[in-house]
Amino acid sequence: MKNDDRRGSSIDRRNLLQAGLAAAFAAPLGAWGAQAFVPQAPVSGIDFSEFPLCRTASDAPALTGAPRKLKLSWNAGAVCLAPVPVAIEHGFFQKQNLDVELINYSGSTDQLLEAIATGKSDAGLGMALRWLKPLEQGFDVKIAAGTHGGCMRVLTRADSGVNKLADLKGKIVAVGDLAGPDKNFFSIQLAKLGIDPTKDVDWRAYPGNLLDVAVQKGEVQAFLSSDPLGYLWLKDSQYKEVASNLDGEYRDKSCCILGLRGSLVRDEPQVARALTQALLDAAMFTAQNPSVTAKSFQPYAPKTATLADIEGMVRYHTHHHHPTGEVLKRELKAYADDLKSVQVFKQSTDTAKFAERIYVDVFSV
């Protein structure tokens, strides 16, 4: 397994927190279940003068009046979204005068984007390579920020003979979803190596929690997985990592994104900016305080994951990288170009115009 040093972050991990954590959150309640979060006062010991820390930080004053209520959709089991409970537990939403209700969503991406576009939710977090194709259809959702990199891995048995991505040529590879972002991502990488991901690799769909069983039975030679399962499987010495989306040029690109309701951006730009700022500040706090973040996320992690495991995942994911503005637009265009290369996007799609249409710079308003 590759170690956490690959993140390459030079961030100074200041210890901003001296006090204990607030009470653990209630467990997720299902696809559209609102979770029983009671916003806490910010934990003592956080010096909010340290925030905003990101380059795009707005100098605009905080919202006034009663806290603005918002609904934010997320996948509560995705450890890469650990900044979300951090934002609740450590007061980053509260600092922006926001009262955020978390919606644990596990339906299809089209349904999620429709829910955001129609106001059932005000914002959502998801993977760029899962969202971009549906956004090509014209949902009224604007991408305000990338949130981090490092969600996807290619795994195989230690003795499989598969040592690099190019070795997947002629192999059978198990995936949880034939249209999933991990399959799209590694198909793109194979194409860049001159390997036809459609003709030269046999992709087979399996339930996500049985991917390792498929390789154990010899039905496949490798499988794709996301954290936390991928990280936990790698604790077993019979598995090894062949590739991840922190390899090469993608080391400094975000894989997950924040989408906002289009009407929120147009009608309440200060609210859109405040929500984005709170999540970016929470992401930076996460990068600087992985052990604190691990404790915040622990209620959502698999029971087999220790605090050390969660912290390892938090360190592995690039929470210090959360592009906005022109940098975000360039990343979205690059992903759209990548998706054209594997025939997910139509060849006629103008990717520059597409990126311009779907992104918003909330800090320029």
CATH top level of the largest domain is Alpha Beta
CATH architecture of the largest domain: 3-Layer(aba) Sandwich
Tell me the count of domains. Answer: 2
CATH superfamily grouping of the largest domain: Periplasmic binding protein-like II
Number of helices: 13
Which residues form runs of ≥5 with pLDDT under 50? 1-45, 47-58
CA(first)-CA(last) distance:
44 Å
- Shape estimate: globular
Topology:
Elements: E1 33-34, E2 68-74, H1 83-89, H2 92-95, E3 98-104, H3 109-117, E4 123-127, H4 128-135, E5 141-148, E6 152-157, E7 172-175, H5 181-192, E8 202-205, H6 211-216, E9 222-226, H7 229-233, E10 239-244, E11 256-261, H8 262-267, H9 269-288, H10 290-297, H11 307-316, H12 325-341, H13 351-358
Parallel strand pairs: 2-3, 2-4, 7-8, 7-9
Antiparallel strand pairs: 1-3, 4-11, 5-11, 6-9, 6-10
Helix pairs in contact: 1-9, 4-12, 10-11, 12-13
What keyword list fits this structure?
365 residues, D-Maltodextrin-Binding Protein, domain 2, 33% helix, 16% strand, globular
Written overview of the protein:
- This protein is an alpha/beta fold.
- It folds into two domains: 4-150 and 252-364, 3-Layer(aba) Sandwich (D-Maltodextrin-Binding Protein, domain 2), CATH 3.40.190; 152-244, D-Maltodextrin-Binding Protein, domain 2, CATH 3.40.190.10.
- Helix content is 33%, strand content 16%.
- It contains 13 helices and eleven strands.
- The strands form two sheets. It has a six-stranded mixed beta sheet. Strands 8-7-9-6-10 form a five-stranded mixed beta sheet.
- The protein starts with 32 loop residues before the first strand and ends in a 7-residue tail after the last helix.
